[in-house]
Design a protein that fits this description.
The N and C termini lie far apart (40 Å). Strands 2-1-3-4-5 form a 5-stranded mixed beta sheet. It has 145 residues and is an alpha/beta fold. Helix content is 41%, strand content 21%. The radius of gyration is 14 Å and the shape is globular.
């Protein structure tokens, strides 16, 4: 088994499926440090009645607790949808080393800003399993209409 971007994004997609099953917007993520998943999460904004309960926010907290450190500069976040401005701001403060995301978010994604708000040392990789990530989101929103 090859533990590459596709592998870890598949795990993030499983988290997104958990969100879909819970009638949440299907976004999932994992945080990886030295080849090991140290945090996994999915959106829980409806369940927790908390608009900050995005998958990334929960995973940042979990990873920081795991490492006993507020900085995640040696970690990679794999998330099924491009982070929003709130999650990108949190990513900045964690100084996360790398962010890999699947689908782009043309409405609320951080790429809609005219300025990059990620930490200067954070590497960004986009489009990993984007079609699979987008399909889960389409399925969710189609059912809501």
């Amino acid at each position: 088994m090859i533990l590459d971007d596709n592998y870890f994004m598949q795990v993030a997609l499983k988290e997104a499926q958990k969100a879909l099953d819970a009638d949440e917007v299907p976004i999932g993520c994992v945080i990886v440090c030295n080849g090991t998943i140290i945090a996994r999460a999915f959106n829980r904004t409806e369940q927790l009645k908390d608009f900050t309960a995005h998958a990334e926010m929960q995973a940042f907290t979990s990873a920081s607790e795991y490492l006993n450190n507020k900085y995640l500069n040696e970690c990679t976040l794999y998330v099924t949808l491009e982070p929003c401005v709130m999650c990108s701001g949190a990513a900045f403060w964690t100084q996360i080393g790398r962010i890999v995301f699947g689908a782009s978010d043309a409405k609320r994604g951080v790429s809609q800003l005219s300025k990059n708000i990620f930490h200067p040392s954070t590497e960004i990789t986009q489009g990993v399993l984007a079609a699979e990530s987008a399909a889960l989101l389409s399925k969710f929103f189609k059912a809501k209409r």
